[in-house]
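User: Hi! I have a protein structure encoded as tokens and I'd like to know what sequence might fold into it. I'm fairly new to this, so please keep things simple.
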């Protein structure tokens, strides 16, 4: 085996930003990846570029932005892990063009977000937060006015995916009646009922909670018109994406008394660090619960995320598997004993696999296993061969027209 073409595990540099759970570091080290740098903060600009210029694997949460200048500096970068649900902080298309798969943890903090939503629902319907704010001002507002049990009230869930369905289960367990709306037909859990359109859900729900992704169909979804469609005296909860709600229109509806309150965990513009000030038109409204994007910020969720994303990065580094990558073809090939493994990432255009196989045949190389996956732009092949890999073979494979990256794994 030509060890000069493959990296030993202790030579693979891994940089983790933003206080990623220590379990991720432990998992890397258990699998032989001992060159791990764990930083507690995000970095930007030149500081970020300098930190990852020699990194092979980078892990980020929501604040570290990986854009064009970063990829230009990180010449050795092989994979990125987003230790969170979202991947908006990474230019996914650009990463793919550089042959870099990006992994995330789309479901690991599902329970944490769902529990926060249920807690906020109870606090809002009891007016507990507003009464707490009054008590901090030395005011005593003991009253049952506008305080309600959640039992028998209607919870409207917009987006019935992993989090939305978990909220549905918990809300029903609390005695709530659950309705939901999703663009994709979803089977209901328990006694939940699907609503064909958003408008009918808004008119019926006592509490509307949003669990949708950030895309062109959801941006400003809850605009002034849709907020006006909500049942008078209802509550709005947003623990999905800051771009989904027009917060100016929401503040206006609460000040006018059309809505009784809201709980917001995500915002169109958020501070870059805990040292920066937070600004929002919702500030100062007693019946609005404002939380600093903590839906998934529990120790349990962060541990689960650390385990899931680190596991996927290890699988990619060990075997080339890209299952769970958000910007890459999903490829996984079982290990063939006694083989040598090559990875070939290329532009998705006709004839490349034919060129690869012709090259192998001309070099008299027997293929033990081969798996190709493609998406609209990228093709990715894992190859297991019998012969040791020579400099000549690697050069020939890298010379295939359309090649983005080709390397020996082991």
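Assistant: Happy to help. Inverse folding works backwards from shape to sequence: for each of the 410 positions I chose a residue that suits the local structure. Here it is:
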């Amino acid at each position: 085996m030509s060890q000069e073409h493959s990296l030993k595990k202790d030579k693979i540099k891994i940089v983790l930003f933003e206080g990623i759970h220590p379990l991720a570091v432990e998992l890397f080290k258990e699998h032989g990846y001992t060159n791990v740098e764990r930083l507690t903060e995000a970095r930007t600009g030149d500081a970020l570029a300098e930190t990852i210029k020699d990194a092979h694997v980078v892990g980020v949460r929501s604040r570290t932005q990986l854009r064009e200048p970063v990829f230009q500096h990180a010449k050795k970068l092989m994979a990125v892990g987003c230790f969170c649900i979202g991947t908006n902080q990474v230019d996914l298309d650009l990463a793919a063009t550089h042959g870099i798969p990006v992994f995330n943890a789309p479901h690991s903090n599902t329970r944490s977000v769902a529990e926060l939503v249920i807690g906020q629902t109870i606090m809002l319907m009891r007016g507990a937060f507003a009464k707490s704010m009054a008590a901090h001002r030395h005011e005593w507002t003991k009253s049952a006015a506008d305080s309600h049990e959640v039992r028998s009230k209607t919870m409207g869930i917009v987006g019935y995916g992993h989090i939305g369905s978990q909220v549905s289960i918990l809300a029903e367990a609390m005695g709530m009646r659950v309705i939901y709306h999703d663009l994709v037909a979803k089977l209901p859990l328990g006694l939940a009922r699907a609503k064909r359109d958003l408008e009918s859900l808004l008119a019926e729900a006592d509490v509307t909670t949003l669990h949708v992704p950030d895309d062109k169909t959801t941006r400003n979804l809850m605009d002034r018109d849709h907020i006006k469609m909500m049942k008078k005296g209802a509550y709005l909860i947003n623990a999905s994406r800051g771009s989904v709600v027009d917060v100016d229109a929401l503040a206006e509806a609460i000040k006018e008394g059309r809505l009784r309150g809201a709980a917001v965990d995500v915002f169109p513009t958020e501070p870059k660090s805990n040292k920066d000030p937070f600004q929002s038109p919702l500030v100062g409204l007693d019946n609005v619960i404002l939380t600093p994007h903590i839906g998934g910020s529990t120790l349990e969720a962060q541990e689960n995320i650390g385990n899931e994303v680190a596991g996927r990065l290890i699988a990619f580094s060990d075997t080339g598997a890209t299952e769970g990558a958000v910007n890459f073809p999903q490829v996984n090939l079982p290990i063939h004993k006694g083989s040598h493994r090559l990875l070939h990432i290329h532009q998705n255009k006709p004839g490349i696999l034919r060129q690869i196989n012709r090259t192998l045949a001309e070099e008299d190389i027997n293929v033990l296993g081969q798996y190709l996956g493609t998406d609209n732009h990228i093709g990715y092949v894992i190859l297991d061969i019998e012969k040791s890999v020579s400099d000549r073979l690697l050069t020939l494979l890298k010379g295939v027209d359309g090649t983005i990256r080709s390397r020996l794994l082991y």
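A useful reference point when you look it over: The longest helix spans residues 299-319. Feel free to ask if any position seems puzzling.
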